[in-house]
Amino acid sequence: MIGNYRINLVAGIVGFVLTFFVAFSSNVLMTSLVRGFIGFAAWYVLAYGLRWGLGVLLNPRVENGSVYDTNTGHLRGSQVDIKVDDDGQELKDLLKNGQSNVEEAELTSSETKAPTGFAPLDPPKLVRTKEPEELAQAVRHLTDK
Length: 145
Prior knowledge:
By secondary structure, the protein is mainly α. Helix content is about 55%, strand content about 5%. It has a two-stranded antiparallel sheet. The two termini are about 75 Å apart. The model has no long low-confidence stretch (mean pLDDT about 75).
């Protein structure tokens, strides 16, 4: 964080003075003092937020407790090396054999895989059981009441 609490205090006093004089022009003394103290608190909090934000923006060397390595210019521990299982056998076969064996590869790969339990949704079709004129009569009857 940049600076110290004195910056917050100065900003709060400036906020108090500005708010007090603006409020005193149209209010009684007690109301102006209350509004001045509210202005002091608001400006104090705003100065604290501004100091914190500037500290985060201007000092990227400390992030989440990581240590900045001055030799490489990177945060130590900011990069993670992950090794994943090799699931690209189908891709390797495709590259080796070319496009001619794509259909065969798809058949063999789908036959060797275990069933996943997925079934596409097959909703029932809506069937009209009544004639359109009969439905129109029902709507006319319901709107009359």
